[in-house]
Structure formats: C-alpha cells, structure tokens
UniProtKB/TrEMBL annotation:
<keyword id="KW-0653">Protein transport</keyword>
<keyword id="KW-0968">Cytoplasmic vesicle</keyword>
<dbReference type="GO" id="GO:0036089">
    <property type="term" value="P:cleavage furrow formation"/>
</dbReference>
<feature type="compositionally biased region" description="Polar residues">
    <location>
        <begin position="128"/>
        <end position="138"/>
    </location>
</feature>
<feature type="region of interest" description="Disordered">
    <location>
        <begin position="84"/>
        <end position="194"/>
    </location>
</feature>
<dbReference type="GO" id="GO:0016197">
    <property type="term" value="P:endosomal transport"/>
</dbReference>
<dbReference type="Pfam" id="PF10456">
    <property type="entry name" value="BAR_3_WASP_bdg"/>
</dbReference>
<dbReference type="InterPro" id="IPR019497">
    <property type="entry name" value="Sorting_nexin_WASP-bd-dom"/>
</dbReference>
<dbReference type="GO" id="GO:0035091">
    <property type="term" value="F:phosphatidylinositol binding"/>
</dbReference>
<dbReference type="InterPro" id="IPR027267">
    <property type="entry name" value="AH/BAR_dom_sf"/>
</dbReference>
<feature type="binding site">
    <location>
        <position position="281"/>
    </location>
    <ligand>
        <name>a 1,2-diacyl-sn-glycero-3-phospho-(1D-myo-inositol-4,5-bisphosphate)</name>
    </ligand>
</feature>
<feature type="binding site">
    <location>
        <position position="279"/>
    </location>
    <ligand>
        <name>a 1,2-diacyl-sn-glycero-3-phospho-(1D-myo-inositol-4,5-bisphosphate)</name>
    </ligand>
</feature>
<feature type="domain" description="PX">
    <location>
        <begin position="243"/>
        <end position="354"/>
    </location>
</feature>
<feature type="compositionally biased region" description="Polar residues">
    <location>
        <begin position="104"/>
        <end position="114"/>
    </location>
</feature>
<dbReference type="GO" id="GO:0000281">
    <property type="term" value="P:mitotic cytokinesis"/>
</dbReference>
<dbReference type="InterPro" id="IPR001683">
    <property type="entry name" value="PX_dom"/>
</dbReference>
<dbReference type="GO" id="GO:0030659">
    <property type="term" value="C:cytoplasmic vesicle membrane"/>
</dbReference>
Length: 588
C-alpha cells in the first residue's frame, strides 16, 4: 500500500506502492512479515504496509499481531471464531452514518464485535464541506479520528524513511466551512467510501478484546502505567513536574534540488529548552503511533488538516501552527501520553540516526491497541461486573450528551460568525451611509443655522461605519477561541464511541464466560483472569474520565471567561464611540 525503503544489513525488502509480492512468512513477529518480489529477492516488510489480496474471498494469511496463545483463542465458540476470521480476513467497509454515536446507542447486547456503522458526519450548517470531500472523512475502524493512509497526489511527499501522509482540504471563510475554521474535512480519493485494511494498525488487528482478556499469561512489560485512587476516584499518576511544548518559527524548506517544498516547525519543550524541527508529516506519524498505542483507552484528538493547495500562504501557516500548538499542549498535559517513550523521543531526539531508530522501535511496538491495558496496574481491589457496567454506561451517557451540546454550540457559533462577518456589519454600514447622505441633503438647504447638526449627523454616520468594522473583526477576538475549544472537544468526544465499544465488548465477553466454562472452552481460572482484566479496563476508563473532566472544567472556565471579557470590552468600546457621537449634537 505504501513505499518502503529497506535499510542495509536489516534483512529488509524494498517495496513500492502497488507492487505485488508473495508472502513467505506472514508473521515474523514485531509487526513484520517476510516476502519475495518478482525478482526472487526476499526480505522483511512492515505488516501494516501491505494489504493481503483475497483468494476466493478470503485472505491466505492474517497480518495482524500474533496472539499470545493462538491455539487457545481458536478453541473459542464457533460463532466467535467465525467473527474473528471474518474481521481479520476482510477489509472493513467504512460506513457513512449520520452520527458516530448511532451504532453505540443502538447496538444490541452481545453484538459488540461489529465495527461498522460508526461513520461520523458533522451536524448543522457548520458541517458542510467542499464538494470534493467524501462523506467518510473522519472514520476508520470505528475510530472517528483514525489515520486513513495516504491520498493520491499528495502535495507533501514523504521522504525515503516513511511514506504515509493524509490529505485534506483547508477551509477559509467560505459558507461550506465552520466559523473560524472549526470543522475538519479530509479531501480523499474520489470514491465516497473506501476500504480500510484491518491490519493497517497492529492494535486493531482483532475485532474484540480477546487478545487481552483471553491470553493465558500476559508478559510483564517494562513500561508500567499505574492507576491510583484519589479524592475523585481512580486517576492517572501525574508527573512531579509538567511541561509544555512551544511550536514556533515556521520555515519553508525544500528537497530534490528545490522541486519539492515543505514547511518545518520548531518545537521547544519547556523542560529542556532544546529545540527540534518537525514537518507536518512527522506530527502525522506521531498522531498515528499514539492512536495505535493508546487509542483503545485514551482519546487521541486528530491533527489539523493537511493542505493540498495554498499551503504556503501566511494565513494557513498561522492557523496550522496555532492548531499544532493546541494539539501539542493537549498531549503534554496528559500524564500518560506526555511520559510515553514515543512522545518523549519525538521531542528529544538528537540527530537523524536517533530519530529513525526511535521511529522504527515505535512502529514495532506490540503493546498497542487492547494490549495497552496489560501495562496498567490499578492500586485498588477488583471491581464486580455490575459496577463495571454501570461505570461504562455513565461514561457513555455523559459523553454522548456532551457531544450533542458541543455540536449545538458549534452550529450556533458558526451561524453567529457568519452574521457578524456578513449581514450585521452591512446593516451598520447602511445606517452610517444613510445618516451621512441625510447630512449631505441637509447641507444643501442653504440654511445657516444647521452646520453643527449636519456635522454631528455626519460623524454619527462615520461612527456606525466604524462599528461595522468592529463587529466584523470581533469574532476573531472571542468567538474564535470558543469555537476552537469546542472543536477540540468534538474531536475528543468522537473517540469515545469506539472506546466505550471496546469496554462493552469486554463486559459481554465476561458475561459469556460461564457458558465457555460449562462447555470446557475455558477454565475457571481463565474466567477469573477475565474478570480481573476487565476490572483493570474499567479503572483505566475512570482514570481517563477524571482527567477529561478536570481538563474540561479548566478549559471551559478559561475560554468562556475570555469570551465574556472580550464581549464586555467590545460593547464598552461601542458604547464609548456612541457617547462621543452623541456629545457632538447641540443641546436644544
């Protein structure tokens, strides 16, 4: 599916996009397979760079992660085995439903393995997109923000060490865009729907949580993610010192003797003050790796869009840098993400060799997807299944309600933005021009005693023209930040249906465990392990929600305070201008 350049001495095989190779070993391990090209050359190729071609409607091999005990998983019930085989063997057809929550809300008990029907489309006027944007712009694997691979004809070609950008259109002040650029839209291929290979991401290779719940023995990972119980319940352990990352100094670079150009940003972590440079494609790579590794447990907000044309325009560069800054700040604020090896490596590599070594290590990380829960250690007693289910339902109910509220505010805000930058200033301009025209007419009377009045009316007209300009500019000073905050949270909330689906699937598996024990498909010890592991998942969900709530309270308090302060200043400025205009009129 993508170009891959082999590194000398690593037994790797160079492949090109569209090339057909024969798989000689489908699961070498660590996210690699062995293949042979038409020249007879053999070598290793990343599993998620290839798509298995169907043979009689089924794949010859499954390119997902190896499971700790495949024989054990194969002993599951026939229905589960068939569902797993179907999901691992066939490409997933992305849906184009109207709401990412529809499948979660309507799913029946036990039907947790299905990943279809999660296509999300923005609502209201703010949801419109340019005509070249397909309806499945924000969905893959049921994950609204999942990376969707490269688009044809991408403007920002990747160099030899990685090839997998995404493309999207950038909205300016058009009626198909959100106010302040508040919605995302991906300009993909011409097809309105596209197939996403389930083996694109190792962590999503299996349709459910069997890989974690049913593994007989979990290897003890080096990395541990502790969960403690605080004043408000389970919570992540926050580092003793926090940091942010400043995104600044965008510079235009080139390669291939100037034939290819790109924008590079300087990133400076506040805890080291040592800068590194990254292109957008590197952010895209980081986003993908975080999504693959943590996406089953932690919502990973999507990046600002790629730009096909006009990507070197000052306005676009400024907007992208602002959104990259917000994204990096959001990642730095998360105690798990910010301390992860892949995130630290992204900010602290020292040379190209160290960067590429870190990239390859991250791409081979097997503690991804549902297996991330194997790294989590709650310092609390196991929960019973009833409480686990209640916690999951509560999270689903709140996040769905907040998603509706955020979308409503985005729609209303976008309509207000349009009014403030369109009809409303024009109305003030019309009033101003009408007053000045009236003063001109009065001046033609030849009457000597009305000069002061005519001058005052003229100045009043000019005041209304000034107010028109103030009204048109004001959304950039207050509404913009409110819309951006809501847009960020819309991205967060769009992740929860998939996260909740994973948890519901695990709960259903535990409910089925008695039947599996009765039919000797699993042992009582296996069932006990399943209950313990689903309890770990529940603690992780609660810890993430406590982090989400604390950030939500801080963010909305800050942004709405800013909005109101700017509104007060705005109306005080208008009131002062009107008072000045009023003072010019003679007192009769």
């Amino acid at each position: 599916m993508y170009d891959f350049a082999a590194e000398p001495g690593n037994n790797e095989l160079t492949v090109n996009e569209g090339e057909i190779i024969t798989i000689t070993n489908p699961d070498v391990g660590g996210g690699w397979l062995e293949g042979r090209n038409i020249k007879g050359e053999r070598g290793l190729v990343p599993t998620d760079y290839v798509e298995i071609l169907p043979s009689d409607g089924k794949d010859q091999f499954s390119c997902g992660n190896s499971v700790a005990d495949q024989a054990f998983l194969d002993s599951l019930s026939a229905s589960t085995a068939r569902a797993s085989s179907s999901a691992a063997s066939n490409n997933h057809q992305v849906g184009s439903g109207n709401d990412p929550w529809s499948a979660w809300s309507a799913s029946k008990s036990g039907n947790w393995e299905s990943s279809e029907g999660w296509g999300a489309q923005p609502e209201g006027a703010g949801a419109q997109r340019s005509t070249n944007t397909p309806n499945n712009w924000d969905t893959a694997f049921g994950h609204p923000q999942a990376y969707q691979g490269p688009a044809t004809g991408d403007d920002d070609d990747w160099d030899e060490d990685w090839d997998g950008p995404k493309s999207s259109s950038y909205f300016k002040d058009s009626e198909s865009a959100d106010a302040g650029g508040s919605q995302r839209g991906n300009s993909r291929a011409s097809s309105s729907s596209m197939k996403i290979p389930l083996n694109k991401f190792p962590g999503f290779a299996k349709p459910g949580t069997e890989q974690y719940l049913l593994a007989k023995q979990l290897a003890k990972p080096k990395e541990k993610i502790p969960i403690i119980v605080g004043d408000y319940g389970p919570m992540w352990v926050y580092p003793t010192s926090t940091f942010d990352c400043v995104v600044a100094d965008p510079r235009k670079g080139s390669k291939m003797y100037g034939l290819k150009s790109y924008i590079e940003y300087q990133l400076t972590p506040t805890n080291t003050n040592r800068s590194v440079n990254h292109r957008y494609k590197h952010f895209d790579w980081l986003y993908e790796r975080l999504l693959v590794k943590f996406g089953s447990a932690i919502p990973i907000p999507s990046l600002p869009d790629k730009q096909v044309t006009g990507r070197f325009e000052e306005e676009f560069i400024k907007m992208r840098m602002e959104r990259l800054q917000a994204w990096m700040t959001r990642m730095c604020r998360h105690p798990v993400i910010s301390e992860s090896e892949v995130f630290q490596q992204f900010l602290n590599f020292r040379d190209e060799k160290e960067w590429k070594t870190g990239k390859r290590k991250a791409e081979k990380d097997e503690l991804a997807g549902v297996m991330i829960f194997s790294t989590m250690e709650p310092e609390a007693p196991d929960l019973d299944l009833v409480e686990i289910e209640q916690k999951c339902e509560a999270v689903g109910k709140f996040t769905k309600a907040m998603d509706d509220g955020v979308k409503e505010l985005l729609t209303v805000g976008q309509e207000h933005w349009k009014r403030c930058t369109g009809p409303l200033p024009k109305e003030y301009q019309k009033i101003g021009k009408a007053l000045q025209s009236l003063a001109t007419v009065f001046s033609s009377s030849g009457y000597q005693g009305e000069t002061d009045l005519n001058d005052a009316i003229t100045e009043a007209g000019k005041t209304y023209e000034e107010i028109a300009s103030l009204v048109a500019e004001q959304p950039k000073k207050d509404l913009h930040f409110l819309m951006e905050c809501n847009h960020e949270y819309k991205g967060f909330l769009g992740c929860f249906p998939d996260i909740i689906g994973t948890h519901k699937g695990a709960i259903e598996k535990v409910k089925e465990s008695d039947k599996l024990v009765a039919t000797s498909k699993i042992t009582p010890q296996d069932k006990q392990n399943m209950v313990k592991r689903v309890s770990t998942m529940s603690y992780a969900l609660q810890a993430e929600m406590n982090h989400f709530h604390s950030n939500r309270i801080y963010d909305y308090n800050s942004v709405i305070r800013l909005y109101l302060e700017q509104q007060v200043q705005f109306y005080e400025t208008i009131a002062e201008k009107l008072r000045q205009a009023l003072s010019r009129f003679p007192v009769m």
